[in-house]
Each structure stands twice: as C-alpha cells, then as structure tokens.
Amino acid sequence: MPETTLAELLERNASHTDSMPAAFFEGVETSQEPAAVSVCCSDSRVSQEAMWDVQEPGWLFTPSTIGNQVWDRHGGEQVVDGSVLYPVTYAGTDVMLVVGHTGCGAISAALDVVRSGPSGGTPSGVTKWVDLLAPVIESGLDDDRIDVDRDVGLVDQLVEYNVDWQIRFLEESEDVPDDISVFGFVYDFQGVYGDVPGRAYLVNVDGETDTTALEGLVPEEYRSHVRRLL
Question: CB neighbours of 80 closer than 8 A, spacing ≥ 6?
Fold first, then answer.
C-alpha cells in the first residue's frame, strides 16, 4: 500500500537524522568537492553509497542511468551526460567511475531488441536509453571474445563489454580533461566473478584491460578484486 511505503520512508528518514553525528554537513553546506563521480546503473539492488561504504556527505557524486550509460543525446549529437560531467567541470572532481553490475536488466533489454526488435508498450523514456545501448550490444555480439552461444553468462559478458565501451567514450570526449582518471568496475551480487557478494571488481583503468597491468595498479591485498570475463 502507498500509505505503508510513505510511512516507511518517513521512518527511515527519521532514523537517518537520528543517527547523524553533530555537524554532519559541516564543510559541505555551501559547496562540494567530491573525490569521484560514479556512474552506476539505475537498479534498486545496487546502492552506490553502500558499495563504497560512503558514510559522509560530499565524498561521492552519484548519477545513475539505465545501463550505466555516460552519454545523452543533445541536438542530434551524442554527448557526455551533464550529470556525469558536472562535478568534473564545476566541483574539482578528477576521478570518474563507470560501474556495471551482474544480471543487468538494461543489457538484457537491449539484447532482446537487437535479437528480436523493439517490443510494444515500452514507455518512450525507457526506449530512448535502450536504443542508445543497442549499438553497444550489436558490437559486443560481433566481438570474438564474447561467446554468443552461451546463454548463461552472455549478459554478464556484455555488461563488462559495455563498461569498456562507456570508458572509451569518456576517454575520447573533448569535454573530459586529459588528466581525469577513469575506473571501470562490475558490481557482483550473483557470484559471477567470485564468491564475495557485493564486491566491485576492477575491470578497466583509463582503457587498460589487461588484468596483470590492472593488478599492478592496486595494493597487493586488493589484487583479488581485479578480474575480467573478457
């Protein structure tokens, strides 16, 4: 019932305010300087603040889109989404994250469109994002690294492929400064990459996808967090 949900929302917010330490917003009341902007998929199972254990306001800028897409269309041109670019341009953020997740419904929907064509009844606001994702899926199905005959696991391969694609778009955009670092992760809550539920696996850094090279970029105790399917 909507009334029950409303009551729970108010209860959860009350719990939030009751648990705040004194001066919780001190230092960010009038400005922000997030350490990173994280572009994640719009999915209720994937909490950006929770996955990075963010306890304080102002540390992470968190736009989410269907299929963790970093772009939008403006004037017929594909551009970096303003919500992604804003903290880099105006808040001094120098790290961008692209975070996909296992079992992504957006990837599945785009795969269905590529294979079977559009289905009726989908709201245009959703169709727009699925259509933007479809060329990525088409390219992925033509990639020799992806086993298209493997129904189980195909979506997760395409999830990783999409993270790589989104990072390449950021790297090639003139709107993203050259000194920005871009990290790609896949959030795994289904045991696809390993046996630690909720781990974010590093799959790409500034376009680098070789796992040995990626392992060399992280502290030794976190090398098990580096893994790729492709």
Answer: 70, 71, 72, 169, 170, 173, 175, 176
pLDDT digits (tens, 9 = 90+) for 163-179: 999 999 999 999 999 99
Tokens of 182: 């871009």
Say what the alpha-carbon torsion angle 103, 105, 111, 114 is, to the nearest 10 degrees. -170
* Pairwise CA distance, residues 154 & 159, whole Å: 9
pLDDT in tens, 123-147: 999 999 999 999 999 999 999 999 9
At 107 the three-state DSSP class reads helix
**Do the Cβ atoms of 152 and 64 come closer than 8 Å?**
no
pTM for the model stands at 0.96
Rounded Cα distance between 122 and 171, Å, is 32
Parallel, antiparallel, or unpaired for β 71-74 and 77-80?
A: antiparallel
d(CA 207, CA 93): 19
Nearest to 153 by CA among 164, 165, 140, 166: 140
**Helix, strand, coil abundance in the chain, percent, nearest 5:** 40, 20, 40
Beta bridge partners of 77: 74
Tell me the CB-side half-sphere exposure of residue 160, using CA atoms within 13 A: 22
